[in-house]
Amino acid sequence: MAGINLDDSVMTTRLDSVINWARRNSLWPLPFGTACCAIEFMSMMASRYDFSRFGAEALRFSPRQSDMLLVLGTVTNKQAPVLRQIYAQMAEPKWVVAVGVCASSGGMYRTYATLQGIDRVVPVDVYVPGCPPRPETMIHGVMELQKKISRESLSARKEHIERFYQSMARQEELQRAKGLTSYQVVREMVLEAGAAGGQQIW
Amino acid sequence: MTPAFSPFLPVLLLLLIALGVGAAILLVSGKLLPGLLKPDNPQAAKLTPYECGAPPRQQGARHRYSVKFYLVAMLFILFDVEAAFLLPWAVQYRTHLWTFWAMLSFLATLLVGYIYVWGKGALDWER
User: Which residues of B touch A (CB under 8 A)?
Assistant: First the structure.
């Protein structure tokens, strides 16, 4: 038995790098398409740009079965609680890509009706610039997310997801206490965070 | 030649495989040792019904509902058969008094059932 060399047939690695390798190459996107970025997303998924090359061709229109939320377009204040609810219902671990300037920062809609960046209400991992971004840009954004996933530790997403669920509980509590609708409460929370010099409500 | 193992060894193997498959399914679905193979983080907001992000109209769709459709469908089948019998009888009916009484006794039997169903309140939709 002595003298058998396994160097060519056995590979050793760390558990988290194997798990991250599996996670980054089997992302399940959930498109939250609200504007023209969603049109670009269609061509990103279609044959010319062929997003399935990155292991993420299985679109699921249910948050239960997806782990990458693609926010494609303008999110108004009224839609902020919808986005939060969908993010809350997604399977863990979950990642969020803000596609286009509207989702990233409100973009040209610098108005009272538009959420000035979805990172105020949900945690965001990658921001993709463009109005709308070309499919190449969006693919680049997801590739950056894949790089990020391969670097992170297995418990890296626990803390901010926990904080997000605490903010969801607070939203629920405020809604019941003040008798407001969900978007009024989220708006209040955003304004409150802004008054305190912060950007995020989670 | 007798085998070196008990004839009941396959039964033991079958039992072990059954236990193994069951344990594997429970493990993968996270019912056994939650958090080992998948993140386990149940949250109130996560467990609400998915209605495209809108607040759910009611907590869960699994509420009890009445089975009166079933009852009414069964009763309909019963009395529909009666009508199905009546039609060829009426077409073939001649002056024989015997056929008249035979059909009347059949209808009387069904009438008893009808009165029973009525008395039980099975035809009362609002109940």
Answer: 39, 41, 43-46, 48, 50, 52-55
